[in-house]
Design goal:
Blueprint (H helix, E strand, L loop, with lengths): L1 H17 L6 E3 L2 E4 L13 H14 L9 E3 L19 E3 L19 E3 L19 E3 L19 E3 L6
Length: about 170
Amino acid sequence: MLHHLFSSLVCLLLVLLSACESYDFTVNEKVVYSPRPLFTDFEVPDKALRGCLEQAIADGGISAASQLSTLNCSHGGIEDLDGIASFPGIKLLSLSSNNIRNLVEISAITTLEELYLDNNQVIDPVPLYQLGGLRTLDLSGNPGLQCPDKGGFARVETVILPDHCH
């Protein structure tokens, strides 16, 4: 019984302390713990993409670019992806329903496993061919898409293409 009570008390203390992770802790007016600052050292010219990245960083408490593994910027009004390759740890990237045309910048994110580019203005899918870890790709709703070569996405488990590519 005493062991159970002690375990419960330890669990309660851990929960309470984790709720305070964003605060500085001081003892005798000396800071003994300070949380790592949020990551801000990136350049992204597209204001909509920058806003989405800033929100994801704040929501996830991201303190280094490589820590960002999921990014959902659907319906964001994004046109330009320059600078997104500064986040080399992204595994899931959702850019559905934007105005994206050029995918060259995405080709540098070699950790990508899931990529959603449906309902954009993508024309050339070739930059995505070199993403060896890609497992899911959605390019539906891109009316001007040049249909990919049959072997281009051979390793991708799920590929969704626009109707004109079938």
